[in-house]
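Re: export button greyed out
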Amino acid sequence: MFLGPACLLLGTAILAVRPAVAGGAESSSERAKRILRTVDDLWRGQSSHGILLMQVQTAHYIRSMRMEGWSKGKDLSLVRILEPLKEKGTSTLKSGTSIYTYLPQTDRTIRLTSGMMMGSWMGSHFTNDDLVKESRLGEDYDPSITFEGDRNGQSVLEFTLMPKPQAAVVWGKVVITVRAQDYIPVNSLYFDEDMALVRTMNFSTVKEMGGRRIPTVLRVVPEDKPGEYTELVYEQMSFNLDLDDAFFSLAELRRK
Amino acid sequence: MKILFLAASNVGRNRQRTLVTIGALAFAGFIMLFYASLIEGFLQTIEHTAVGMDLGEIQIHQYAYRENPDLYQRIEYPDDLIQKLEAAGLSASPRLYGFGLAASGSASAGVGLRGIDLQREPAVTQIHRHVMLGEWLEDADPEGVVIGRKLARTLGANIGDEVVIVTQAADGSLANRLYHVRGILKSIGEGLDRSAVFMTDRSFRELMVLSEGAHEIAVVRRDTALDLQSATERAVRAAPGLEVMNWRQLQPVLATLIDISGVSLMFMILITYTAVGMVTLNAMLMSVFERIHEFGVMKAIGVSPGQVIALIFTEVMIQTTAAGGLALALGLPVSLYYQRHGIDLSGWTGTGTIMGVAIEPVWYCRVTPSTVFTPVVFLFIVAALAVVYPAVKAAVIRPVEAIHYR
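Workaround output, generated via the alternate export path:
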């Protein structure tokens, strides 16, 4: 979710870490993990369903798409395009590290090859790789709390995630800021190996949805392309539905 | 004339030695003549495949395109530019490039899409003649695509099979369309073989939602007498504000390889000829030593040292001329034979690639004036150098000592 077309697209990931041992003195790292897990749980639930609007602004085009998505755990998610008409029915299934796309115009399902992983997902500023890798953030990075206090008039906590030594990762560093009182995320910053900021994700417009208070607007701004962004607006969300694993299958992907 | 007569009869005196010397020189000349045409054939094949099938001699792009080949880095008015290039004595063809995914059955592969102007491309490359199976593109068959041979294998696609191409169109939408394999290309180069999907430029524009422009203008000289550098300068003048590069600049490694191969040919000539030079040196030295008495007499009756040197030089030149003639008589027909038929190496190796350029397992010779004359001219130079020492040796003989030499 740090990233995320969150719950929906990414199957909500965040830090999938073991629960901290209750009681006793809590180390800084354990505290960081515990809080991030809470942030994660905010979006996660066992499963989720929602409708969102994705708006993409680039130097060459402006796109607006409405989509419906379902997720279960952090490995399964299914997203189906509702609008525009030209792409209606186009669906993406994420199952573990594989991504399948169903194309209604040609009635074909394709599995994305590794060569396409760095390509844009649906013309947005998300790569296909984001969809797969996001859920691994907790496995590949070590978090620590690097700031605690007031910033821009609100009390926040800042986490810095550094890649584990052996992990094959895309980011050199990820910095996540959450509100101190309710752990609702404010933004996350993605740095490359040279520690240069690559993109920023801002979370805003906190609303009650599906029985939870969540930020309903998420805007991704790439640093190297001024003026461009991708914005996700959650229009409806519900959590903890009864979804069978079979729902996230290739057969379901093709269902119109 | 007297010297020539004398030299000729001297050459005839020790037939065995003369034959060995001529034989060694002729053999070396023959080998080098054949080798030079082989190398030339090899280099021309590489150049022809890389330039004549794919690159074209000169390419024009937006400055940022080669660094970052995205869909939006287009030359805006390709038709105007092509007209200007044609007015400058060049032929040109616009090309469109994109990336995507091709899927056939359950197999899929990342592909490079190429939109081809079917009217103009044949003036620039011969790729339309390089189809292994099926046929080249046709405007009347917009759904037909021609793909690289390794891609065909990866996709398990045969002629007539359906292929879905998925890509991000210029408007950001997920473009996907069904095509059929119309042709499969012969091997051209690693990149093309593995990932190229050729389609008509109209199909490309429809798929990519791209109405105007071209990513690349490929250019060739209409008149091959014009050298590449001047042609490049003409193209630069025709395309202000655009990046113009010839194939030597685009593929510097390939260009260097070709240049180095020329140098390596000279090295081979040097090594081989040094060896036969030694043989010649040895033979002439012996012939001089055998005739010390005779040279003494010649000097005594008033033959000058210069005339002695001229005599020995002439003897060697007679032999070299015979050897050169022999080398030509043997080497030329053999090279010409293999220029036509090629040497089939398919038992030894399959289709390989060098610097990403496909090399067919049939190796053709290529006979040019330079491959014929370079070995022969060098043969004379080496023989002339080899004989300096024996000739000087004979020239400085003192008549009195030499006459008594036994």
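Chain B has two domains: 2-50+254-403, 63-241. The button fix ships in the next patch.
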